[in-house]
Amino acid sequence: MSAVLNHSTVELRPMCKQDLPLIIAIDRRVYPSPWTESIFRDCLHVGYCCWVMEENKEIVAYGVLSIGAAGEAHILNISVKPESQRRGFGECMLDYLLEIARDHKAKSVFLEVRPSNTVALHLYDKKGFNRVGVRTNYYPSKDGREDALIFALEL
Question: Most CB within 10 Å of its CB: which of 1, 113, 137, 138?
């Protein structure tokens, strides 16, 4: 299954193992504590919803969503390569992952985000997510540890 967005040069498609070198390179540029290759491989292996967004056949973004048995989904990762940020790709990926969650009959979607990630916080607020908790010292950071804000959206 793949989805074509409004612009003819942008396409969403399932992530595959061959995409991992490019995905990992983006992740290393975006996050201070990037995922390892084995984390991405495990996500693909267990059947998480892993998608890439391509513009002109080049990967510009990706997202990972897990669907739980209790009517819950969890957005594990959404990333946009730095030179493609602020063009709506992150919001498009989020919308698509929410659509997948709805298609799987999820009733709610959860995610964690760094308090320092103001762009993501603005997007999640815009989409109607609510802050439901904090994971203290969740993320590694260059200055030690950073909390994770937990957000939820009822579908």
Answer: 113
